[in-house]
Every structure is written in structure tokens, then in C-alpha cells.
Amino acid sequence: MAHNLLKNPNGEEELEFWELTENGGSSWKVEELPGDCGYDFGNEEVTKYFATSFELCLKKQEVDLLADGYTAEVLDSQPTITVEDWYCGRTDCGCTYEITVCLLDENQEVLQEFKPDPVTLDPDTDGGCSWKQVSHTFSEYGPGLRFISFEHGGQDTNFWDGWFGVRVTGSSVTCNV
Predict the structure, then answer these.
(1) How far is CA 128 from CA 12, 50, 66, 92, 124, in A?
(2) N or C: which terminal CB in the chain sees fewer CB atoms within 10 Å?
């Protein structure tokens, strides 16, 4: 079974291994599930999540596939790459969520990108902002894959001081050899 190439996907090690590319408002924070005005996650192994604030918060990890033990030959055979992420809002405040995942060659040039439109969650109209999963599988991206860039985050829509923005956890990137 393929293993998760992301380190610290659930905040068990606070913000370790994550590059904070945008750290607005009150900045990123790790909280215990379900959190204030939150929802149960549904997986007892996941006990924490990353919370965003009232200005844009984005965090990123770059996976070096050669350093992780994959050979150039295996990567050039274009194994599928599966990305998954979980996000939710609060019961008392709207928020936005965004994700960008890029497959990169040795020069950091983009081979293929997954960047869906940002999602806005409104607790008044969405009938609850409980945990939702986004997933994508890359295939047929051509030879040369060496790095994967995973970036996600968001913010709240009311600009409230504190951590009322989108919550993320359970992130994963797998190389399906």
C-alpha cells in the first residue's frame, strides 16, 4: 500500500514540516478536534486540525520524490499520484478553502496542476459546514516528475479576530507504483 508522502498531515507535530506561505490575521494554529463550534471528524486516529484566521493562511510542503526513494525510471513511467485533503468550517462563521497541487520536474517547472476554484462555506446556507473531502488523481503527465508541491488553506469570511477560518486535516499525497 502506498504511504503518505506528506509529513505531519494532521497537526500532531504542530506546524513542523510546513512552510507558511501566507500567515495572515492571527496566523495558523493547531487545535484539538472537534474544536469550538466544530464537527467530529469520523476517524478516531485524527485528533487535531490546522485552523486559519481572518486573513489568508496558506501552508505548503514540497515532496522530493528521489529523496523519498523513488527512482527516475519509476517516476518516468508516470505512476498515478493521488492527493486527498479534508476541510470544514465552523457552525458560527463562513470561510473559504483552497488547494493547489503541482507535479514538478527537476527544474521546478510544472508538469501538471490541480487547482480547483476556491470553495466558500456558509453555515447559514450550506446546512452545516461539516468535514468534506477533496481528492484528485494525476496521470499521463509525461516523464520527468521529481517533486510534488502541496499547498492549501483559506480564511474566514467575517474577518473576526482569532481562528474562525477553514480547518484542514488528513492531507495526503501518495505515489501509486
Answers:
(1) 26, 19, 42, 10, 7
(2) N
